[in-house]
Write a structure and sequence with these properties.
Elements (H helix, E strand, L loop, with lengths): L9 H23 L16 H13 L3 H18 L8 H22 L6 H13 L5 H26 L19 H10 L2 H14 L2 H39 L8 H29 L5 H31 L4 H11 L1 H16 L12 H25 L4 H11 L9
Helix pairs in contact: 1-3, 1-11, 1-12, 1-13, 1-14, 2-10, 3-5, 3-9, 3-11, 4-5, 4-15, 5-9, 6-9, 6-11, 7-9, 10-11, 12-14
Length: about 425
């Protein structure tokens, strides 16, 4: 027996669409470039000004910010579905199945399409949220705030320690790419210099074969999951708790409007100067290496990664509450088909850059990648409303809901 589906909240769908589209601007480099280049600041000596500006733009306004919004929204979604549940109504079993299916989606996505998949990590954090469902709103708020704030010094520690790592000596790779498995690529990742490993990435992802590219991506996905255990998962869980608490405290009710205005004012008013200053400090720190400088760089970036998403959330939710127009409807449609659009971004970027498509891996600049991503975002904003005019939900949302409830939901609109 299924429970009634919670009413959708238009403003939350808009914010989810906004968050999803911003995530691609961060992820695009990791689809198209070796890991020692993706996300790294261009060289001040040899890099172009346009590349440096493109990196600074992503660093200041997107990196850490939009995935925080997405995590915040996961917590909101959980609280919406948990609202009104009672002991014995099967909610925990249904939501457990939902998380298991999300983990399956994430594992497949991480191995076959994108090594930076967050869905598997989110499913694990969702289990914690489910186990703590009975906690009070205040406890969730304190847990969320504690985890998120703890990540500020922790990021500093991680970045400081990174500068103390001994450089990997140059060695000749004996890896046979056509027969290498995930463990072989994982060993190469540990043993080779970043530049040497980048040559392997370039050959595998641009030329194949498929078995090698899957094995390589599986190894990189494992490294990302370790990163989730060390840092990312705890940060995501903190925003999960904050999202759940925000919904339970009535942030999306009329009495929540003053709080949204405060979030916008504080988040953007303090966050924009901070993130611009933090980005400028990152550029300066490139010429002043050392653990203390790196630690401060990490702390500043993490603090900006807390304030900016808070400001974005307040601004977008107030915008969405101000009425409806075609652009808001487009963002809402993307948000309502978020899983399909998230995986769809990976399919499209994979076709452009991997060997089974156009094989352009390693050939695009960051400026070009941002322009390509902007085109993908415009396409998703245009197509999502057209899809929902004919269908009730995205195809992956339909499959997810069917498997969760055990009953095939209506798909086409009548």
């Amino acid at each position: 027996m299924t429970s009634p589906r919670p009413d959708r909240i238009h403003s939350i769908d808009v914010l989810r669409g906004f968050a999803l589209l911003g995530i691609l601007l961060v992820n695009c480099a990791y689809f198209a470039l070796p890991q020692n280049i993706a996300g790294e600041m261009p060289s001040l000596e040899t890099g172009s000004t346009s590349e440096l500006l493109a990196w600074a733009f992503v660093r200041a306004f997107f990196e850490l910010k939009f995935v925080a919004l997405f995590s915040f929204l996961f917590g909101i979604g959980f609280a919406m579905q948990a609202k009104g549940s009672t002991p014995g109504d099967g909610f925990k079993q249904r939501y457990g199945r939902r998380l298991l299916l999300l983990a399956i989606f994430g594992a497949l996505h991480g191995v076959f399409l994108f090594m930076g998949d967050v869905l598997l990590c989110y499913s694990a954090c969702g289990v914690v949220l489910l186990l703590t469902q009975s906690f009070s709103s205040r406890t969730k708020l304190l847990l969320g705030a504690g985890l998120v704030l703890a990540m500020i010094p922790w990021m500093g520690v991680l970045q400081g320690l990174e500068t103390l790592e001994e450089p990997v000596p140059e060695t000749q790779s004996s890896l046979e790419l056509s027969t290498a498995g995930p463990l072989d690529f994982l060993s190469a990742y540990v043993e080779q210099t970043p530049a040497a490993f980048a040559i392997i990435e370039q050959q595998v992802f641009a030329e194949g074969p498929s078995a090698s590219s899957i094995a390589m991506r599986a190894a990189q996905f494992f490294v990302f999951l370790v990163f989730c255990l060390v840092y990312f998962g705890w940060r995501a869980l903190g925003f999960f708790f904050l999202g759940a608490a925000a919904f339970e405290y009535g942030l999306f009710e009329p009495q929540g409007l003053p709080w949204l205005r405060r979030m916008r004012s504080i988040g953007l008013g303090a966050g924009i100067p901070l993130t611009l200053g933090a980005t400028a400090f990152s550029i300066w720190s490139a010429g002043h290496p050392g653990p203390l400088v790196a630690a401060l760089d990490g702390c500043l970036a993490e603090l900006a990664g807390l304030l900016i998403p808070m400001g974005f959330a307040g601004a977008v939710l107030l915008w969405a509450n101000g009425g409806r127009n075609r652009l808001l409807s487009a963002f809402s449609a993307v948000g309502r088909t978020a899983l399909t659009n998230y995986i769809g971004q990976s399919v499209f970027m994979g076709f452009l850059f991997y060997h089974w498509g156009l094989g352009l891996y390693g050939q695009a600049s960051l400026t070009q990648l941002l322009l390509i991503s902007a085109g993908v975002l415009v396409l998703q904003l245009a197509l999502s409303p057209l899809w929902l005019a004919r269908f009730r939900m995205g195809p992956l949302e339909w499959l997810w809901r069917w498997a969760t409830y055990g009953q095939r939901p209506a798909f086409r609109r009548t």
